[in-house]
Amino acid sequence: MKLNKLLAWCGTLSCLFAPQLSADTVYLVRHAEKQGDSIDPPLSECGRARAQALAGYFANIPLAAVYATPYQRTRQTAAAVAAAKQLSVTDYDPRQSGQLVAQLTAQGQPVLVVGHSNTVPQLVSLLSDIEMAALTEQDYNLLYRVELGPQPAVMLTRQMFECDKQASE
Q: According to the model, what pLDDT value does residue 165 have?
């Protein structure tokens, strides 16, 4: 099986610049590539490699907590980061987004949230009051960084991780 290595995380696009950013940061990412279309599929080989690349990205970024929905694909994506940070993965109910937002804003320290194509943009919008475009089923490489505070800011980073899908099938 041939997987391309993590090349880099780059391509930061700022959706909004705020002059005074808070130290409270919420990172949000959609789960990595899944294996099949069952109700609760695990990560594919590409997905596992992407989860490891995500852990590498967070190697020098402090995190106080890692949250994921109670599905294999989100928990497995979060587990790579959590293990590297010696944290446990905290489950959240994706149908209770208001409750999660309250937890995140009270956290006061950087956290990672792993969600789904329909929940990540919604959470970013709830945290920042900035409307986010929907994700497609092919969008696995976006990382949102929300700086909380009086003037919330959202930064969007595109992972440059590439997976040779034919070689991994």
A: 59
DSSP 15-34: S---SS--S-EEEEEE---B
Give the total residue count for the chain: 169
Predicted TM-score (pTM) of this structure: 0.83
Q: What is the pLDDT of residues 118-154, one digit of tens each?
A: 999 999 999 999 999 999 988 999 999 999 988 888 9
CA angle 129, 8, 133 (to 5 degrees): 25
Q: Return the closest-CA partner of residue 92 out of 141, 135, 28.
A: 28
- Amino acid 164 reads D
- CA-nearest of 111, 101, 38, 114 to 70 is 114
